[in-house]
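name: query_chain
kind: protein
chains: 1
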Amino acid sequence: MYILSDIEDKKIVIVDLLSEKNKLFWDITQKSIKKYVKLWKKILFITNKKWYSSSTICADCWYIPKCKNCDIPIAKYVHKNEFIYMCPICKTIYENNWVCQKCWWTNIKEIWIWTYKLAWFLSDMFAITPKVLENTDINSKAKIEKTKKILENEKYIISTSILSTESKYFNPDLIIFFNADIWLSIPDFNVWEKHFLFLYEFMKKYKTSNFIIQTFNANNYVYKNILKFDLQWFWNKELEYRRQFNYPPYSEIALIMYKSEIEERLYLKISKLESELKYLIETQKYEITIFSTPPLVYKKFWKYHYNIVLKWENLKSFLDIVVDKLKIKEKWFQIDWLPNNII
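structure:
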């Protein structure tokens, strides 16, 4: 199933991946790639992540190997034409072991497909050799000049977000967003806004390109609005959602964060402070929403992390009282007022 829209002389296709199982590319995506390759047209493939795949899983017991230092699956990378397994956060390298460490079977599968594995699939399926571009390709003047030459000479590029700004060196005829909406599953108040603006600005800058967006959430209003290409319509829907749950700009948000190498200490500290905050809120008769939650990555660099989230329309005045009365900064708590996210 797909939805086609013609906006400002460009075609936007929303592909519903839920209707197609066990396929890397939906039929219309495959046909479009074959067509553009045959016509010698330029194609830009956008993925969410670099690396080869984000993690592995045992297909027998569903065990996912994680880093011993960070609460995150071990990712598969390509380094000097060899596969390595490494933590994306602390960069610890693990053995290339295709045996499950829990049930000892060898039925190991890869979860999600990112830049380098996508390049392998494209080569195998369409007999093309796309060039993979990453952030490290533009972190120096010499690399930028090299990347410019690549963009001038290559017809097929795989990238994450470094080409979100229109380049005079590479003007693709077709842009494909591969697994576009993986970030929509993140439990944060502004993920829809970020995702919509990413797509909207991309389409606005690449004015002469056609677009294919592969998604598992075709009914989300982000994609319904992309077909309209109407920024004001999106903001109306987004503000309606934020008003309903009292998110900014209808309230202020603050995070009080704590981290410790000892998990029990972490819970004791967070639990005690949360009780003190609730007592202070009650005695001062504030109508503040408060709850504690782990961040998206619970453990990073050997330390466990936990957050207390506060939400109210005038939170700064309350935080001043908290700092003064509870001395939280002296107890190694950190405050993030008006954070960009709450995860």
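note: Residues 51-111 form one domain.
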